[in-house]
Request: fold
Amino acid sequence: MRTRPPPELTPEEIAAVRSWVIFEDAHLIAFDKPSGLTSQGGVRHVHTLDDLIWAFARSNGKRPELVHRLDRDTSGVILAAKTKPAAGYLGKAIQARKLTKTYLALVSAVPEPVSGKIETPLLRVEVGRESSMRVASAEEPGAQASTSRYRTLSESPDGALVELEPLTGRMHQLRVHMASIGRPLVGDVKYGGALTAAGRAAGRLMLHAASLDFPHPDGGRKVVSAGPPEDFRALAAAMGLAV
Reply:
């Protein structure tokens, strides 16, 4: 595993990251990442989740490594491998698309149809230090085939709670795909989402990684789940949606 000087973590930070653990065994740790915390990298965030998991470092200096990312404002399930073999195993599983990721999101209007599959190619766009995605034709240079499923779980006059599943792993895929059918996620400023819902401000992107179904290094499959945080539940309730 990669080694580098550990950051200085406060007792509060150590207690926080330990409180986010929802599953742990000899091979991996699953966290329920809070919204507002960057997974890795980023010049504007002193301590990312990748920094905080130094709290789990062993006496030999080795520590867990994240095997995938979530956007900063996205809450929910994220995995870290505790050993090099586990990291390799999970990395290959991700490349082979053997993980099933399920998300929950709020949108301001009920999708039409209420469930479906979106198969729209996406193209990465770089403007300065900012990266984004846009829909593209399959013939455009750099366009990536992208597929997502969506299903409406609850609806009201103020919007809908939808379940989302990315079948490919493009950056911002679910956000751009939902925007492409005229249903951007509530709070998603980058892709046209409403900043309010049911008369209440949406303080962030309303997207939550609810569960992850993946092949386990010991064999079989493991499902790890995390319920939406309070801000998501509160806005859903104000919209008249059952979570």
In short: Residues 34 and 56 are 18 Å apart (CA to CA). DSSP finds five helices and 14 strands in the chain. The chain has two domains: 1-96, 97-243.
